[in-house]
Amino acid sequence: MQPDVIFLISDGGYFANRENGSAGPVPLGDVLKLIGSLQKELPSDARIHAIHFPDPREKDDGRIGSGMRRIADRNDGQYRRIGN
């Protein structure tokens, strides 16, 4: 089965690296590359809706939180910011 819609739900902040146990920001560029590579595998692009629960400490430093609207827009989805 192939997805028609994907819901991306995030605070846009940090992730845990399972390989070395560290945590760091989720780079927007990495997410966009991953989405692009996964969309190539599908017969037609899945729509991606983004729900963003912003972290009040979030800075516009290139992590995914600052680009979740862009992810939704580029993938024919809707963006919703909840809180702050």
Topology, pairings included?
Layout: E1 5-10, E2 14-16, E3 23-25, H1 28-40, E4 47-52, H2 68-74, E5 79-81
Parallel strand pairs: 1-4, 4-5
Antiparallel strand pairs: 2-3
Q: How would you portray this structure in words?
A:
- This protein is α/β, with parallel strands linked by helices.
- It has one domain (5-81).
- The chain has two helices and five strands; from the N terminus they run βββαβαβ.
- It has helices spanning 28-40, 68-74; strands at 5-10, 14-16, 23-25, 47-52, 79-81.
- The strands form two sheets. Strands 1-4-5 form a three-stranded parallel beta sheet, covered by helices on one side. It has a two-stranded antiparallel ribbon with strand order 2-3.
- A hairpin with a 6-residue loop joins strand 2 and strand 3 (23-25).
- The mean pLDDT is 79.
Mean pLDDT: 79
Structural class category: alpha/beta
> Count of DSSP E strands?
5
* Unreliable stretches: none
The portion of residues forming beta strands comes to: 25-35%
The geometry reads as globular
What oligomeric arrangement do these chains adopt?
single chain
User: How many individual helices?
Assistant: 2
Rg calc: 13 Å
Number of domains: 1
Task: List the strand order in the largest sheet.
Answer: 1-4-5
Distance between the termini: 37 Å
Could you give a short description of this structure?
The chain has a three-stranded parallel sheet with strand order 1-4-5, covered by helices on one side. Strands 2-3 form a two-stranded antiparallel sheet. The chain is globular.
